[in-house]
Amino acid sequence: MNARIVSVLVGVLALAVWPLVTGSFGIDFVAKTMIYAIFALSLELLVGTTGLVCFGQAAFFGLAGYAAVKLSPEGATAALLWLLPMAMGVAALYALFMGALSLRTKGVYFIMVTLAFAQMAYYVVHDTPLGGGTDGIYLYVKPVLAFGSITLIDLDKPLAMYYFVLGSLLAVFGFLALLLRSRFGRALAGIKANEARMRAAGFSTYPYKLAAFVLSGAIAGLSGFLFAVKDGFVNPELLSWHQSGAVLIMIILGGLGHLRGAVIGAFAYALLQEFFKSEAIFGAFAKHWLLGMGLAIIACVALLPRGLIGVTDRLKARRAPQPVQAT
Amino acid sequence: MSPARPPEGADSRSEGQARSAKGASLPQTVLRAREVTRRFGGLVAVDRVSIDLERGRLHAVIGTNGAGKSTLINVLSGELPASGGSVELRGQDITRWPQPRRARAGVGRSYQRSTVFPRFTVLENCRLAAQSRHQRPWSLWTAAATCAVSLPAGRDAAARAGLADVLHTPAAALSHGQRRQLEIAMCLATEPEVLLLDEPLAGMGAEETERMLALLSELKAGHAIALVEHDMDAVFRVADVITVMVNGAVLASGTPQAVRANHEVQAAYLGVEET
What we know:
- The complex is a heterodimer.
- Helices cover 73% and strands 4% of the residues of chain A.
- Chain A has 13 helices and four strands.
- Chain B is 36% helix and 23% strand.
- In chain B, the strands form two sheets. A six-stranded mixed sheet of chain B has the order 6-7-8-3-9-10, sandwiched between helices. In chain B, strands 2-1-4-5 form a four-stranded antiparallel sheet, with helices on one face.
- Chain B is globular and about 60 Å long.
- The two termini of chain B are 36 Å apart.
- Chain A binds chain B through residues 178-179, 181-187, 189-190, 193-194, 196-205, 208, 211, 325-327, and chain B through 77, 79, 98-101, 103-104, 108-109, 111, 115-120, 124, 128-129, 131-133, 135-145, 147, 150, 170, 172-173, 186, 189-190.
């Protein structure tokens, strides 16, 4: 328990001082990775907590990103306080639609139906004038949080963006930690462990799963919003199934069933990607970074079945063998 | 007999009051099934079965494997919809109610194979079951583990089922008999009025069986119990009414003496040694 809190605090502190010791590339890289960590946390709520393997998470990410760009007034600054809830609301609304229908299926069917819904959204932004086609759309003026003439947060400044992302990550992490220990969270854990038993006890599980789905969509929407605002650009690739797959790999890499796993997984994924893309290390082979990345992920999953978060438990167990008892 | 209901449990409160108002009277029908039928394609698993479950009486359902006993439990608990017939709870038609709604209205069930939450502790298994009575999913600030309503209710249910000593043991680490007790405890934690028990004695040793039978006799006073069981000695010891099913239909129903004396039953079932 204490070690857990300490590890979270150390992580927060490191992220808070990071901009002081690095340049603009470092700030941008970590900000982007933290955005993916929020994205991963949203999926962790579904996969790790509720046992719903959603393969369409990119839809929420991308739709919120597009909403941020499309709903920004042209040539004028948008109010963050208005734009952010709107973008999250669009994602949550799509999650409500997608969840209401897909949650009637189970297992592999659920995975495929969520993928289908995400592909549907992908083709809408890809092939209709609404989404600006393959080229995507630019967001020229970034939203600000201002009261009267006092600007509190200007997301056009990289440092402000960085700390806004960090604050969002902490808020999402804290919210989910609170949620998991609440009665709602325990009910979700029960649904993951044994849904039939939960129904027999008197829980109508469908509304619970739908609520989790919509929450997850809204959080994924937050990350999509941040991504679009940080880059000032959206394109259909934000909604592609590669994104859904990547975020799924992040939480598996980090360790399912732990909020910290999702964050660690997002960072591990980003670092692996940078490593295999590096021409300084791999030279011409860096072009084929996906190959190395794939092999590394397969190795990780094979060697660490409980993810990176399970490593500390393993080390502990090796040092002092504990009596055999279920976790 | 049933513990005081929490003041919070708004959605089940009126039902609870109705229960306690009737509670004082003599045996009365709580759950009534009329000509209940369940078909799987061409197979009639449950064929026009009528059964009354009364408070204070233990109603055993026996029959060979495949006689439709478990399917009957599934239909009564709402896990499977009935293909025909009706189910009434305290005079109200619940035939179309889904399982969670029936459970909240007081129809509890246990499973033949233990279906507890293996990674949770005994207490958390019971507490979570008790939580179904006052779910409050929106109250995010309260930690479930310290919930002032479901925690005592869960602890109480565990104690009634004889698990007070192993509250903090993960369910997966329990013995087989204890896991069966936990099944009952989780059922009790939802404060049911009807208990549908699917082979609670399966695979139990002699001592564990004795303990479970004592628990069943104790629970009889406050609940209407249906017991599906293969252990004939046990059934004839605790049952007040026995219904014999063959091929999905009721062959005979009555007091243990009457059933034992029934020639058809002897021919069809009791003469054959059960495994």
